[in-house]
Amino acid sequence: MENRNETDLNKVQLRKDFETGDYDRGASSVKIFLWYLVSVVFIRSGIIPFSVIIEAILKLFGAKIGRDVRIKPGIYIKAPWKLSIDDHSWLADCYIENLAYVRIGKNVCVSQDAMLLTGNHNYKSVNFDLITKEIVLEEGSWIGARAVVCPGVTAGSHSILTVGSIATKNLDAFGIYQGNPAVRVRERVLSSK
Question: What pTM, to 2 d.p., does this model score?
Answer without folding.
Answer: 0.88
